Amino acid sequence: MKIVLFTQRVEIVESYKERRDCADQRIAEFISAAGFLPVPVPNNGDTAESLVGELKPAGIVLTGGNSLAAYGGNAPERDRVDETLIRAGIEQGIPVYGFCRGMQSILAYFGNELKNVTGHVAVRHDVSGEISRNVNSYHNQACLELREGCGLVCAARAEDGIIEAVKHTDYPIMATMWHPEREDGFHEADLKMVRDLFLQKGGVER
User: Fold this and answer.
1) Could you give the count of Cα atoms lying within 13 Å of 55 in the half-sphere of its Cβ?
2) CATH code for 3-201?
């Protein structure tokens, strides 16, 4: 079974003076359901880069949690890990899927601006475009228009115009603002999207 690396959020525990890496257990369950072996990545850029080189994953998942530091977030080490993994994916031809904060990292990497938005936390709404269906929403920042020439194209928008999914025209990079692991029963379309993306690099060992 091929390995898929996934990032973790940073939780700050002031009483212990600790910065902890953690992830919803459903993220690993989602990656497993898609047919891959999930491996978490600590929030250390050098370690993240080493893991990519040593494990040669079939794919990388940039997960949700923590706003980007440029937009008020308190986990700059996570920004560096996301940037490292995106760059490694591009350089080594490893597919990358980002959701929620992961999509924001991808947008920012390619020079796109985020805006504060309302009405997109703990709600469901319809999206339309190449992807058209009802999805969950848990974000305070979003992109309204893609920078011309950035290489990303919109794959879905919400009814208020917010971009809810993107893909890159040259690299195997896909992102959504919704959380696939938070669905009540993983959505087959999300599982298929991840399988199709990561199978571009050789597929799952049988």
Assistant:
1) 24
2) 3.40.50.880
What would the 3-class secondary structure string for the chain be?
A: CCEEEECCEEEEEHHHCEEEEECCHHHHHHHHHCCCEEEECCCCHHHHHHHHHHHCCCEEEECCCCCCHHHCCCCHHHHHHHHHHHHHHHHHCCCEEEECHHHHHHHHHCCCCCEECCCCEEEEEEEECCCCEEEEEECCEECCCCCCCCCEEEEEEECCCCEEEEEECCCCEEEECCCHHHCCCCCHHHHHHHHHHHHHHCCCCC
Tell me the C-alpha to C-alpha distance, in Å, between residue 44 and each of 2, 41, 125: 23, 8, 35
Going from N- to C-terminal start, the domains of the chain cover 3-201
Do 4 and 57 contact (CB within 8 A), yes or no?
yes
Which residue has tokens 């475009």?
129
Q: 117-168: per-residue pLDDT in tens?
A: 999 999 999 999 999 999 999 999 999 999 999 999 999 999 999 999 999 9
Give the CA distances from residue 134 to residues 23, 29, 175, 183, 189, in Å, rounded to whole numbers and listed in that order.
24, 22, 16, 11, 11
CB 170 within 8 A of CB 91: no
Q: Does pTM top 0.85 for this prediction?
A: yes
Q: What is the CA radius of gyration of the chain?
A: 16
CA distance 121 to 90: 31
